[in-house]
Predict the 3D structure of the following.
Amino acid sequence: MKIGYVRVSTWDQDPTLQEDALRSAGCEHLFFDRASGGSTARPQLAAALQFARRGDVVVVWKMDRLARSVAQLVQIIADLREREIGFQSLTEALDTTTPSGMMLIHTMAAVGEFEKALISERTRAALAAARQRGRVGGRPRAMTEQDVVAAKAMLRSNEMTAAEVARQIGVSVSTLYRWIPAARSFAS
């Protein structure tokens, strides 16, 4: 049995083109989602994948309807293959029920892994170069050492509450407590 999956990104997009193409391709059941491709909350995709049985074929109008990244696409297809369910994309003429379709999927998986490795390598190189220039990544510290010294002095004077000290330094009370745990005793 052919099972069609239709996805449009917004409520004003019309799924008719996809629906007609899938019905023409012989899909007996259609599942519709209105969700961004990057969204992990696609309940009808989950329903379509769960509905599919051994020997069925999940069909989409275009590959980007199923997944936004090569890695995501390869993972879904691998899960389908493990369950002996085929996959077809009408626009790209991809059909995993054929040897050439499976070869293309393996090629896409290899390209996806290569792309992932390149991104990781570039990220590591950029971080190393930044460290060599004295730059450290991450979020700036909420309090400097001078802020800590000043906050401790204000707290010891017993003239200000922890909330007032935090406001004076320009941080939240929870940040003050994180940097100076003893400040909790000055909470009143």
In short: The mean pLDDT is 88. The beta strands are 2-8, 29-34, 57-60, 86-89, 94-95. Residues 163 and 173 are 6 Å apart (CA to CA).
